[in-house]
């Protein structure tokens, strides 16, 4: 898990050699554990690194290896991700036929999983693909499929993203009335999203405040406890010195009385 996150940090910093070493260590570890799921993930990370470096042939090779292990592991969502990665790479190679096939396979596996969020994403990917190759009618079909599910499930961010793409298509088609409607939807949705975000940020701030307050209370309580221990320790030391001084004073007085008696006896003689 840590290596996976570290890899993403190195990619963001364009430290590709270090990213490569991290993935190799990640792969070696899970191969020693015979962990098929994470071996698939490791090859997927290699593919992402190659894609970042525009080494498309190597990316396809690693994505295919990842897909093989995902199919063995039998995790539909990972298989869907594998097909999506292959689709994107073939798209960059201008191999649009294979890209389309892989995007559709990814959609079928995400439908198998049955999670609306991923189905919306798969439809959106196909909309992006057809928009990228200027087949706008097909793009509108897939964007509208994504829009329907997003609206039905209350996924406002996904709805906003679809309207953003629809606005671009309507502009290219010269359908400015539809573009205007899409932009109006975006404006109203943006206000709702920002409100939700503000509420979420406020909740996060409150949570942070409560945590800090708890820490300060604990810290204050801990300091009081330490101070009480110190006071008790000082009191013990003070008591010890009082007893010691009292004993010393008693001894001096006793010696003084004893010497006085001896002197009186001597005078009597």
Q: How far apart are the termini?
A: 100 Å
Number of helices: 10
Structural class: mainly alpha
Percent in strands: under 5%
Poorly predicted ranges: 199-206
Secondary structure tally: strands = 0
Helix content: over 70%
Average residue-wise pLDDT: 81
The largest β sheet comes out as: none
Order of helices and strands: HHHHHHHHHH
Shape: globular
Radius of gyration (CA) equals 37 Å
How are the elements arranged and paired?
Blueprint: H1 2-12, H2 16-32, H3 36-52, H4 56-73, H5 76-92, H6 96-113, H7 116-132, H8 136-153, H9 156-173, H10 176-268
Helix pairs in contact: 1-2, 2-3, 3-4, 3-5, 4-5, 5-6, 6-7, 7-8, 7-9, 8-9, 9-10
What does this structure look like?
It is a single chain. This protein is mainly alpha-helical and 269 residues long. It has ten helices and no strands. The protein starts with a helix and ends with a helix.
